[in-house]
Each structure stands twice: as C-alpha cells, then as structure tokens.
Amino acid sequence: MKKIIFSDIDGTLINDRLEVTPRTVQSLKRAIANDTLFVPVSARMPLAIEPLINNISENSPIISYNGALIQNEDGETIDSITIDLEEVIQLCTFIEESSQNVYWNVYSNNNWLSQDKENFWIKREEKIVDIHSNESTINEISKLKEVHKLLIMGDTNEIIECEKILLRKFPDLSCSKSTPYYLEIMRKGINKGKAVKILADYYHIDLTDTIAFGDNFNDIDMLQTVGKGYVMLNAPQEVKQLIGNITNSNNFDGIAEVLEKMYP
Predict the structure, then answer these.
(1) 212 and 162, same structural domain?
(2) 84 noted as active-site residue
(3) How many H-runs (helices) and E-runs (strands) does the chain carry?
(4) CA 20 to 30 Å from 90, out of 33, 48, 184, 203?
(5) 112 by DSSP, 3-state: which?
(6) Domain harbouring 31, CATH code
(7) End of a domain among 187, 208, 223?
(8) Gap between the Cα atoms of 184 and 180, Å rounded
(9) What is residue 108's three-state secondary structure?
(10) Same domain for 214 and 243?
C-alpha cells in the first residue's frame, strides 16, 4: 500500500552544514523504491527546496510556505492560499516605521523581495537557501498579484514584541516562529498539518499511512496530523515533550535511523 513520508527541511532533512547526508538520501531512495512518496514540507519557497531534493527524487510533490502553496510532482498547483495585498502593505509599513532591528521579506511564488539586501539577517538567509533576494520597496510590493508569505527577521527580543503587536493588528493573519529570530506570517488557518492532509487526500492515501519528521514549533501540526510523527533530537524541549517520538538529530541521520527500520 502506498505511503507518504513528509519531512521538514531546515533542522530536519538537512544537517547544520546545509547538506542532505548520503545515508539519509539512500534511506529515502529505498523508501521511494517501495511505493512511497517523499514530500518536503517547508517554510521555504519552492525554488529553495528543489536543489535539496534533486538527489532524492526528480519528481516530488512540494509543500512550501508552511502550507500556503502545495504542488504535485509535475509542479502543478494543488492549493494556493495568499495574503490580502493591502494587509501586506500595512504590515511592511508598520515594520519600517516601528522597528530598528527587524526587517520584512515578501514571497510570491518563486519571487523573494527583501527590505534591505545589505542587512545581516537577509544576507544570512541568502547564504542558507543559496538564493539571492531582490531588494524592493513597498511601492513595488503593491504591484504584486499575490503574496504567499511574509518573513520578519531580526533581533530576538524585537521579534517577540512584533509578534504580540501583529497578532492584535492583523487578526486575519497567523504567526509562527521557525527560529527565535524568524517570524513566518501567512493567512490565518494555514499550517503544515492542513497541508499534509490536503496532499494525502489528493493522492487518495489515508493519513494512517503517512509519517513525518520535524524539529520546530511550526512542525507540530504536521507531526500531530500524520499517522506517526517523529521529532528530531535537536528540537526545542517543548516540541519533544509534546510529540514524544524522538529520533536522532539532523546532524546524526535522524530520518535514516527511522527509515532503515521501516525499509530494511
């Protein structure tokens, strides 16, 4: 019977050197050879996911932007949920006017618009995902047809305060921290858990025949939705306590340790 393996990317599929190890690649290839779909599930944009999975599978469905964009193995859109453009403009304006050490990033399909390319946080993210952003303005954002995600990045304490204010000012949006200094913003109701259910339904696969791997707070919904969710050893303690099934860390082939038992 066909199964699905869902996996977060940063802190889960890739190690701290931003690589998918040969052992993890082989364990996933073995699973795919045994009638199993592999699906990366990430806050990243599709363009930042594809290079990491090419060695695993040439044609994988992709869940990007924490579930705001879902594509099948041919790149066709299964589901796309966007943010109201007026809210995007208001939010970016608020960030520019009220924060000194926090910066906005706007994502539309495979386009990444950033507030300041020379900023430490944006340069750091460019290095992580190996993609260059396009420095932009709020006026240019207003010309976009759709926006899937905003990413607010910067000082940890300011991020905490920003989240409190944004949740009050924009009740139709949801916020989740993928790291202490990254605040992911999407339309309310979007999460990885809903996305994996939509994709499983699309392929007519029961959720009991799905597993998932994750390492952070924005993975919790996914890990609780699938048949069995595994949390990486490097995850925050609260996430490990909530999920319970703990595998090794992303630096020590935590995914492979589980899959080698499932697909010996």
Answers:
(1) no
(2) no
(3) 10, 14
(4) 48
(5) strand
(6) 3.40.50.1000
(7) 187
(8) 11
(9) strand
(10) yes
| Domain co-membership, 17 together with 37 | yes
Mark whether 70 and 194 lie in a shared domain.
yes
Query: What span, in angstroms and rounded, lies between the C-alpha atoms of 107 and 167?
Result: 20
Pair 248, 232: CB distance under 8 Å: yes
Give the confidence band of 100 by pLDDT, cuts at 50, 70, 90.
confident
pLDDT in tens, 130-165: 899 999 999 999 999 999 999 999 989 999 988 999
User: Which tokens belong to 214?
Assistant: 């994750």
102-134 core/surface letters (b: 16 or more CB in 10 A; e: else): bbbbbbbbebbbbbbeebebbeebeeebeeebe
Q: Residue 31: which residues within 8 A CB-CB, separation 6 or more?
A: 3, 5, 38, 259, 262, 263
Q: How far apart are the first and last CA of the chain?
A: 17
Residue showing tokens 């806050």: 43
Residue 68 Cα distances to 31, 83, 149, 200, 227, angstroms: 27, 9, 8, 15, 22
**Token pair 């950033």 in the structure block, residue:** 114
In this structure, what token pair is assigned to residue 241? 């306590």
Question: Phi-psi bin for 25: left (phi > 0), alpha (psi -120 to 50), beta?
Answer: alpha
Asked whether residue 165 falls in the same domain as residue 114, the answer is yes
